[in-house]
Amino acid sequence: MSDASKESNPLENIEQWEDFVETATYPEPEHKKREDYRNYDDPARDCVREFYRLNHKHQTFDFVMKKREEFLGERRERKELTIIESIELLNTLVDDSDPDIDLPQIQHLLQTSESIRARGCDDWFVLVGLIHDLGKLLCVFGEQQWAVVGDTFPVGCQFSDKIVYPEFFADNPDSQDPRYNTKLGIYEEGCGLRNVYMSWGHDEYMYQRVKDYLPDPGLYMIRYHSFYAWHREGEYEYLLDDHDRAMLPWVKRFNPFDLYTKSPKEPVWSELRPYYEDLIAKYLPPTLKW
Length: 290
Ligand SMILES: [Fe+2]
Ligand SMILES: [Fe+2]
Hints:
Elements: H1 3-8, H2 15-25, H3 34-37, H4 43-58, H5 61-72, E1 80-81, H6 83-90, H7 104-118, H8 123-131, H9 137-140, H10 202-210, H11 216-224, H12 228-231, H13 242-259, H14 269-283, E2 288-289
The structure holds fe (ii) ion (2 copies).
The site of one fe (ii) ion (FE2) has 5 residues, from loops.
């Protein structure tokens, strides 16, 4: 990575954020000792901090509007890919610094979906596991890390201080803007999350690709899986409607599969691929337009 690129993309790879979330949000699993993550001199930790500094500074209401127009608007020239092609394209985001890990993106998707399947959950839930992070293709399309991964949060109203590294919001211009810096900002009490603009990233982008095809609990998992201030901290109650409250348990149910299924025994894509091709065909159109 060049120096200039390193400045705007401080993480060694986008999984580094998820490794951080895993330890910042839940008790550490046995194999990762607490001390490893409380060391603020740890260079990996510095990368994550710098990543959040950029994320919190630049994710403004105007930025979100601009990205929504760019990626969700009519004028975008969309690349048309099957889900399998999309997964394989995402997998080109290889982490050069870690040659031991084969196919890291496919592995995360497969390990998530296979652990959901092993629990005997509905097949649409398994499919959600497989596709939930495909919005990370934004990185392949040249978007900066802080605009693809990281916790998501509402823009257009006051930032919760339960979002990780809340002090960095002081550099976000919206914190000084009277339209956006009150509790409700541009929203009405109880308006429902579907009427709330979230910081821009892979969750919303993927949700918009599949919103017509999956059951609502699955869509909530895709759209809000990085909204930790809500599903972990219980913040933003005043924006929710009854449907959001009904869907929250599903989002919470998905989270451990996303975070804690890095099994040492890797599922083999070539063996599982026929099963997933059938599952994809059951719910999704032959191609998605990115
Ligand atoms: Fe994700
Ligand atoms: Fe994930």
